Amino acid sequence: MNNEQLVNDLLKFPSVLKYKNKNVTFFGSARFEENNFYCKKAYELAYKLNELGYAILTGGGDGIMRAANKGAFDSAKSPSVALNVRLPFEQNTNPYVTAKYLFSNLSPRKFALTDSSVAFVVFPGGFGTLDELFEILVLAQVGSKKVKIFLFGSEFWQGLDEFIKNTLVSQKTIKKEDINLYKITDDLELIANEILTI
User: Are strands 99-103 and 117-122 parallel, antiparallel or unpaired?
Assistant: First the structure.
């Protein structure tokens, strides 16, 4: 990607976010099928938050992203936004969106997905999901963002949580209080209620 494309993306994507709703970004695997447990929960939470007036932002692909966009789209009370990127695999924009933008590169897209959201719900996923999660955690750790970060699926996230607490904290590569930057839960009501306090 050249500098012109980067600048073009950064200048143009805000046009799809011209609404007054607060944003909640959903992250998670693009590879899950529609009937996957986590997709069903992403749909349910996105529907609930959209009913409460929150715009739902995703990367616009399949799996968790499709489920979250569909939940928001079916609610139709607030925007359902896809911020997609050109990739050689996986990333066709799902049809359940009211606004969308296609980025030329992952870097400006990552900025767009994190810049304006008040909360992040991270469902199980692979390297891309982990990359997005740690990007937000770093921004929160250094004080660049004051946001709520929820990791849905305690069984899935248990190993990562143990690594953070038993290795990163014990080796003093992060502070003990940094573990408070995220919350692992299986409770959609808790997530919705905490987001409402923002």
Answer: unpaired
